[in-house]
């Protein structure tokens, strides 16, 4: 019988690419990971990995086993959900991850409702950039996550994650009051200083792409990830920025919000197979209720 813990290591090797990265993710030593993978290979009876220079890659059999592993892990999540549903009442820790504007606008009402209706649940919130959410779910650092993408920067679905649509938002170009805005506001901002997110974040990527689609490379003058700070910089006349609707609920004076055709799309995500877990389902329901009519 193949050991599930060793299958997780093989799955993470396929995802992370190196023994050292797998060891770090699991707080193991590299030699311990290598030993466990060697045992798994003996259990399987066929080579699962092979040396390529200084690295290790999966053989076709190893890649096939990883695909089966995702199915096995999803089935285990579903089994745990079934057992949890057989218990009386909801209890235990639920780790919720969300991007900053959702933490500020959507989550408070959902958390209050969950605490009222399920007082034995221990709710923990972590603020994360959406690009980090799938790994956090997979590594069980989160149980439920609010993540998003943009139509200009769609995210490839992660096979280890299930999700439900939650919210579609207008994206605005935030400009200082009085700055002329043409029919194509992004193109009109080609000579402006831009306020963008930290490189590597989804917001930074979207700003780069929306300007590329308008035919130019933006000039990033300031970097800020909090939309309150972004709008304060815009109000001070220090540049223009992209701001989604949730980030522009209470814009300061001196800012004009010009709606664009681009959309930001938010989803509620959880590990594949865990959607029927009562605690996960309760969180999803509370978040969806808190979101209903929020932007209307």
What is shown here, in short?
42% of the residues lie in helices and 25% in strands.
Radius of gyration over all CA atoms, rounded: 23 Å
Query: Which consecutive residue ranges, at least 5 long each, have pLDDT under 50?
Result: none
The overall average pLDDT, rounded, is 90
Number of helices: 11
Give the tally of β-strands: 10
Q: Which fold name corresponds to the CATH topology of the largest domain?
A: D-Maltodextrin-Binding Protein, domain 2
The helicity comes to 40-55%
State the CATH superfamily name of the largest domain. Answer: Periplasmic binding protein-like II
Order of helices and strands: HHHEEHEHHEHEEHEHEHEEH
Give the C-level CATH assignment of the largest domain.
Alpha Beta
What is the overall silhouette? Answer: globular
Helices and strands: which structural class?
Answer: alpha/beta
């Amino acid at each position: 019988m193949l050991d599930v813990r060793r299958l997780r290591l093989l799955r993470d090797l396929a995802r992370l690419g190196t023994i050292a990265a797998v060891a770090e993710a699991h707080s193991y030593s590299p030699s311990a990971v290598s030993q466990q993978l060697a045992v798994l290979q003996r259990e399987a009876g066929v080579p699962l990995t092979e040396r390529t220079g200084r690295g290790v890659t999966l053989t076709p059999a190893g890649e096939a086993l990883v695909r089966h592993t995702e199915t096995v892990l999803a089935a285990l999540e579903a089994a745990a959900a079934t057992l949890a549903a057989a218990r009386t009442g909801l209890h235990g820790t639920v780790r919720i991850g969300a991007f900053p504007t959702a933490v500020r606008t959507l989550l408070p009402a959902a958390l209050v409702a969950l605490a009222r209706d399920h007082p034995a649940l221990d709710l923990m919130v972590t603020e994360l950039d959406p690009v980090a959410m799938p790994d956090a779910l997979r590594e069980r650092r989160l149980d439920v996550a609010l993540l998003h993408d943009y139509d200009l920067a769609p995210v490839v679905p992660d096979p280890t994650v299930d999700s439900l649509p939650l919210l579609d938002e207008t994206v605005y170009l935030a400009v200082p009051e009085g700055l002329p805005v043409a029919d194509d506001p992004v193109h009109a901002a080609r000579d402006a200083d831009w306020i963008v997110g930290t490189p590597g974040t989804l917001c930074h990527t979207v700003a780069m792409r929306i300007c590329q689609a308008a035919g130019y490379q933006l000039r990033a003058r300031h970097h800020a990830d909090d939309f309150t700070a972004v709008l304060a910089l815009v109000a001070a006349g220090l540049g223009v920025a992209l701001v989604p609707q949730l980030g522009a609920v209470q814009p300061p004076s001196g800012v004009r919000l010009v709606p664009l055709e681009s959309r930001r799309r938010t989803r509620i995500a959880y590990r594949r197979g865990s959607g029927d877990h009562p605690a996960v389902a309760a969180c999803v329901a509370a978040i969806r209720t808190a979101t209903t009519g929020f932007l209307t």
